[in-house]
Design brief:
Blueprint lengths: L3 E9 L2 E10 L2 E5 L3 E8 L5 E9 L16 E9 L2 E7 L8 E7 L19 E9 L6 E9 L2 E5 L3 E10 L2 E10 L15 E9 L3 E10 L2 E14 L1
Antiparallel strand pairs: 1-2, 1-8, 2-3, 3-4, 4-5, 5-6, 6-7, 7-8, 9-10, 9-16, 10-11, 11-12, 12-13, 13-14, 14-15, 15-16
């Protein structure tokens, strides 16, 4: 069964990229540092059928789309081999450009326990997350995060996020384990190479959330601010 958080590697004739996908209840939500992936899948037959659309959430020109357009919808067929899932297909918007991807499961053994959230808490769905370091530390990061009834799953092209949160009356708090699923090769010097524990607290609204967090990376304690913007219902 296609269920859980996956590292996804995908390619076309224009190159290759990485990201994460969280699959559950027929939904596929994920992304990387510039794009969100929003889709659905059906496992009712012998093959997995999926339709996934892309949306840009970060306007950095260094992140270019594989199909030369920010918004595209892919129709895919998939199958399982051992614990991996393979997909292939394309888009009617860009005919003649084949798309292939490989989804590798990410373990959630280190995930903190989940406490079910209260009604009127932060809304379930896919969010972009933009991180800015504090205390004079250079750097930042962008990615995506799925919030679902107290559970956090997300990541970007190098890292995955596994965590949990509680929320009530416009405030939320939680903890996350940040893990490097693909070597960042110095592109993310603060967290690269470490499994990082993060605690956070902040506020939320119907459109997003903010939080201040403290990360323990090796022997370093690093503070940062995160801004979340809702991209899709979940």
């Amino acid at each position: 069964m296609l269920q859980g958080l996956y590292k996804v590697e995908f390619n076309t004739v224009h190159g290759s990229r990485c990201g994460v996908i969280y699959a559950y209840d027929g939904k596929m939500l994920g992304g990387n540092s510039a794009f969100a992936f929003i889709g659905r899948y059906d496992e009712s037959g012998e093959e997995i059928r999926a339709e996934v659309s892309t949306v840009r959430h970060h306007e950095d020109p260094n992140y270019q789309p594989l199909f030369k357009t920010d918004k595209i919808t892919l129709k895919l067929r998939g199958w399982r081999e051992d614990d991996h899932f393979y997909f292939e297909g394309g888009s009617t918007q860009m005919p003649g450009i084949p798309f292939k991807s490989l989804m590798t499961p990410i373990s959630d053994e280190a995930a903190p326990p989940v406490t079910p959230t209260q009604a009127r808490g932060i809304g379930n769905g896919l969010y972009s997350i933009h991180i800015q370091m504090l205390d004079g530390v250079d750097g930042g990061n962008t990615g995506v995060m799925v919030l679902r009834d107290g559970l956090i799953r997300g990541g970007d092209g190098f890292f995955d996020y596994i965590g949990s949160y509680t929320c009530a009356n416009g405030k939320w708090k939680g903890e996350i384990v940040n893990h490097e699923h693909t070597p960042s090769k110095g592109e993310r010097p603060v967290f690269g190479g470490h499994e990082v524990g993060i605690g956070f607290s902040g506020t939320y609204s119907s459109s997003g959330a903010e939080a201040e967090a403290t990360a323990l990376a090796g022997k370093r304690s690093i503070r940062f601010k995160a801004v979340l913007k809702k991209l899709a219902e979940g």
